[in-house]
Amino acid sequence: MSEQHLEERVLAIWQTRRARWLYRVLRALVRLVGRFYLRTRMIGAERLGIEGAFIIAPVHRSNLDGPLVNSRCPRKVRSLAKIEMFKGRVGTWISAMIGSFPVHRGAGDRRTLQAAIGLLQRGEPLLVFPEGTRHSGGHVGEIFGGAAFLAARTGVPILPVGIAGTEEAMPPKAKFLRRVPVSIVIGEPLLPPDTDNGRLSSNQRHEFTNRLREAMQAAMDEAVELASVRRARRRWRRRGGTVVGPG
């Protein structure tokens, strides 16, 4: 399958009844695992129910991040994923079925951006990892400007997301899912600057990207704090204490 036709193939698979049905089943399974095994707690879940298109911008600490956030959104969510996930017909079908869309590196990335703009213009929520790849720890460093570019071109808000616990639950190369509680915080929607043509100057994009990074860091800090409180409550329970509130 040539790269020139990969995007069209992915979009065609996404439209099939079988792919849509399997997507709903898989998302339901992820939600059950998140709720009962990982004991996921989410703050700001109602923000995933806003109307129209929007961009979900989580921190990236584990392969669990996208599926867990996606499973709590009441609507179908597309996500940008590295092109290596689309190897062969089987890999392409599975990746397309779960809502992923290929990200090309280098010059080909223009095709990805144009396709992502089209998805947002059709009113579909889109999940983008501004950090690009998985990182470790609670610090959000430099992020890429793709999310800011897409938001400015389409006028849609960005939801910054902080996640704690997934790095421990599924670290890189882990063979089994560890039972580590996960805490997720959905931040306030971040609106792009007003422009006449949807184009940001380099300074505007840099400033908006920094605002997004700060919002992601604030959400991450809140998620880490929530995780710390939950751990303290569990230790208190083990010592015979009583606790009021979620664990």
Question: What key phrases describe this protein's structure?
Answer:
247 residues, alpha/beta, seven-stranded mixed β-sheet, 8 helices, 45% helix, globular
Reading side by side through the largest sheet, how are the strands ordered?
1-7-6-2-5-3-4
Q: Structural class given helices, strands, pairing?
A: alpha/beta
Report the average pLDDT across residues.
87
Distance between the termini: 48 Å
SSE run: HHEEHEHEHEHEHEH
How is the main sheet built? 7 strands, mixed
Helix content: 40-55%
Portion in beta strands: 5-15%
Number of helices: 8
Q: Using the alpha-carbon principal axes, give the shape.
A: globular
Uncertain runs with pLDDT below 50, 5 residues or more?
none
Number of strands: 7
Radius of gyration: 18 Å
Give a structural overview.
It is a single chain. With 247 residues, the chain is of the alpha/beta class. It has eight helices and seven strands. The chain has helices at residues 6-14, 17-37, 65-71, 88-97, 109-121, 146-154, 166-169, 202-238; strands at 41-43, 55-58, 78-82, 100-103, 126-127, 158-164, 183-186. A seven-stranded mixed β-sheet has the order 1-7-6-2-5-3-4, with helices on both faces. Helix 4 (88-97) links the parallel strand 3 (78-82) and strand 4. Helix 1 packs across helix 4 and helix 5 (109-121) packs across helix 6 (146-154). It is globular. The termini are far apart. The mean pLDDT is 87.
